[in-house]
Amino acid sequence: MSFFCELHYIHVNRPLPSDELYRSRDAFRADAERFARTLSETDPQIPLCVIFVAPPNDDDIALYRAFPQWRWIVYPGNGWDIGAHQYSARDCDCEFALFGSSRTHFKRAGWLRRITEAMKCHGNGLYGTAGSYEGCPLGDRPSPNPHIRTTFYALPPALFRSYPHEIASRFDCFKAESGEWS
Q: Is this structure's pTM higher than 0.85?
C-alpha cells in the first residue's frame, strides 16, 4: 500500500511564557536549522512532504528561503503551536499528518515508518512520540494530568479537522492538550 504523509513544522520564533529559559529568536532559529539538518540526515523511509508554518515576518521568510524544498504556510493567529497545527491541517490532503515544533529533531532512519506502522496496525487516532504527567495550569484539572506532548505527534488530518473547538490562544492550547475540551 502506498502511504503519503505531511510533516507540518511550526516555527514559533518567539519565547513562550512557560519556557523557563526565555529563549531568544536565535535559539528558535537554531532549533529550525537543527530540525532541517537532522531531517536531511535521517531517511524517514516513507514519502514525506514538509510544510513550514510560521508567522509572517522577515526572519521567518529568510529562514524559509534557506529550505526551498519545503512548502510554506503563513499562520496569522495566536494559537501557539497547537493552534498553528490546527490551522495548517485545514488544507491537508494526505492520509497521515505529523505536527512538530521548535525542538523537534530526528535521531535515526525509519522514524516515520515506525509511526505509520503503528497507525496502520491500530487505526485512526492520535499518536505521540512523548507523553507527560505535568500539571495543567487551568486549575480545575487533577494533577498530574497524563497527556500526549504536542512537540511532535501525528493523526489523520480529517480527525484534526473534526475537532469541534478553534484553538486561538495559549489558554485554548492548555484546554486542548489537557483534555478540558475532550
A: no
Q: How many residues does the chain have?
A: 182
**Which of these, 99, 74, 69, lies nearest to 86 by C-alpha position?**
99
Q: What does each of the 182 residues of the chain score in pLDDT, given as a tens digit? A: 345 788 888 876 554 444 444 556 777 778 888 888 898 899 988 888 888 887 766 666 677 777 777 888 888 887 778 888 899 999 888 888 999 887 788 999 998 888 889 888 998 888 887 666 666 565 566 666 666 666 788 888 998 899 999 988 878 887 887 777 66
**What residues form DSSP beta bridges with 147?**
132
Which DSSP helix (H) or strand (E) runs through 38?
helix 25-41
Rounded Cα gap, residues 109 and 107, in angstroms: 7
Residue 130 contacts residue 151 (beta carbons within 8 Å): yes
Cα→Cα distances 34→50, 147, 182, Å: 15, 26, 34
Is residue 64 within 8 A of residue 52, CB to CB? The reply is yes
Burial of 104 (0-12, 13-18, 19+ CB in 10 A): buried
Task: Please give the grid coordinates belonging to residue 173.
Answer: 492550547
Query: Coil, helix or strand for 109?
Result: coil
Alpha helices in 90-143 (DSSP H): 111-122
Distance CA 10, CA 101 (A): 5
